[in-house]
Design a protein that fits this description.
- 27% of the residues lie in helices and 37% in strands.
- The protein is α+β, with helices and mostly antiparallel strands.
- The strands form 2 sheets. It has a 4-stranded antiparallel β-sheet with strand order 1-2-6-3. Strands 4-5 form a two-stranded antiparallel ribbon.
């Protein structure tokens, strides 16, 4: 599996911004089949940083309703990556 197939997109919310500032942690949506080691290697190669720890979470899709019709968003996997002290990824900084 290619490293760009493993990392789909960064998750940017208020909570992830607080994690980034206080704990040097970043969150990414990743492929459901990827494990922690693959995720850490992909982050290190793509962004040229050192990863200290990787945690993964399976996020269940919400059930949404439009009138009488029920639908469900897809399930996805989130990786919370802790970078080594002194490391940072610059593209998350504001423009």
């Amino acid at each position: 599996m290619n490293q760009f197939d493993i990392i789909k997109r960064p998750v940017i919310t208020e909570k992830t911004n607080i994690q980034k500032e206080e704990n040097n942690q970043l969150s990414f949506e990743v492929d459901m089949r990827a494990n922690r080691v693959e995720i850490a290697r992909a982050i290190e190669k793509i962004f040229s940083v050192k990863v200290a720890k990787t945690r993964t979470v399976h996020v269940k899709g919400k059930i949404k309703r439009r009138g009488r019709i029920l639908g469900k968003r897809k399930d996805w996997k989130k990786a919370i990556v802790t970078l080594m002290p002194g490391e940072r990824i610059d593209f998350f900084e504001g423009v």
